[in-house]
Amino acid sequence: MRIWADDMPKTSFVLQIGANDHEAVGASGRQDIVPYVISLGWHALLLEPVPYLHARLTAKYAGNPRVRTQQAAICPPGTPNVFKCNRNRTAVLYYVETTNITGNWGSDEADPRCILDNPDHHYLLEVASFSVQQLLRTQGQWHTPYACKMCSQRLQRKLPSSCLRHVVWKNVKDLHVPCACLKRVVRMNQHIDLLFIDAEGYDDIILREFPFAQQQPTRVVFEPKHLGPTRFADIAHYLRGYGYECADMIRDSRMCRQSVGTSVWQRTTGRYSFFSYKQ
User: Fold this and answer.
1) Are 73 and 95 in contact (CB under 8 A)?
2) DSSP sequence for the chain
3) CA gyration radius for the chain?
4) In terms of pTM, does the model score above 0.85?
5) Could you tell me which residues come within 8 angstroms of residue 37 by beta carbon, excluding any fewer than 6 positions away?
6) Up-side HSE of residue 119: CA atoms within 13 Å toward CB?
7) 271-276 contacts: CB < 8 A, separation 24 or more?
8) pLDDT at 153 over 60
9) 130 contacts 94 by C-beta, under 8 angstroms
């Protein structure tokens, strides 16, 4: 991806949906090309719905006139007035709360301080989803006796080896976040050279809402691992209908995989067909 970005004009534009704070350590964070293209001088619009993450993101790019941030989400179908693009719409987003408003500080199996300042668990602080079930799927991913031993040392009290067993579901909270109108966002901005989506299981839904008939980004990147094989195959077919192909297949004929951290799609027909398919 970096080689491709290096060859693009410095006036290129990226739209990122689910930007986090650009300090992410999760799978998509390690493969997030957006901070790099911003460092090249690209223009950017970064959408992040979680207030404290949006605040960090805004602070990171304070003084950079090429970067705009917006505290908003592309809300899923079913949100009231989502298709009418009405202003002042909100939707419920779920996240893992780490302060003691949940009352779980001191708990033997749900103390959220066990996931703070720990790079193996920091992913849980970055996850937010419109689906509480999607959030609960992370429960137990990092539950190990060693992790509890480390947390016991940090909190300076004895904890059982099951200390992370309920750390997600007992600390899940919800908040109402503003909804951005995707069609309006696209209409009000220049040509999108890179569309980057990380929406914790809603990536394919957002892609189906994107007005590809009016604008085709040069590259589309999304996180496929939460979709499952069937949904991934469906959205792959959908993108191919608009002239996109999986960049991995273009590069070395490998099958495009649903289990990877990010899936990269290149526009192969139309305006940008003359670009070489570099990684």
Assistant:
1) no
2) -HHHHHHS-TT-EEEEES-TTS---SHHHHT--HHHHHHTT-EEEEE--SHHHHHHHHHHTTT-TTEEEE--B-PPTTSTTTTTT-TT-EEEEEEE--SGGGS-TT-SS--GGGGTT-TTTTHHHH-EES-HHHHHTTTTTT--HHHHHHHHHHHTS---TTTTTTTTTTSEEEEEEEBP-HHHHHHTS---SEEEE--TT-HHHHHHHS-TTT---SEEEE--TTTHHHHHHHHHHHHHHTTEEEHHHHHH-PPP-SSSS-EEEEE-SSTTTTS----
3) 20
4) no
5) 5, 8, 12, 14, 44, 194
6) 5
7) 271/216, 272/216, 272/218, 275/4, 275/7, 275/218, 276/7
8) yes
9) yes
Residues 236, 240, 242: CA angle, nearest 5 degrees: 125
Q: How far is residue 170's CA from residue 163's CA, in Å, rounded to a whole number? A: 12
Label residue 62 by pLDDT band (50, 70, 90).
very high
Q: Which two tokens stand for residue 124?
A: 């849980």
At 214, list the tokens: 């009016």
| Token pair of 144 as six digits | 């190990």
Sequence-ordered list of residues with C-beta below 8 angstroms from that of 117, at least 6 positions apart, any chain:
154
In the chain, the amino acid numbered 133 is Q
- Taking the alpha carbons of 235, 241, 242, 243 in that order, is the dihedral positive or negative? positive
- Mean pLDDT calculated for residue range 16-23: 90
pLDDT exceeds 90 at position 219: yes
What's the one-letter identity of residue 220? V
Q: For residue 103, how many other CB atoms are within 10 A of its CB?
A: 10
Say yes or no to pLDDT of 16 above 90: yes
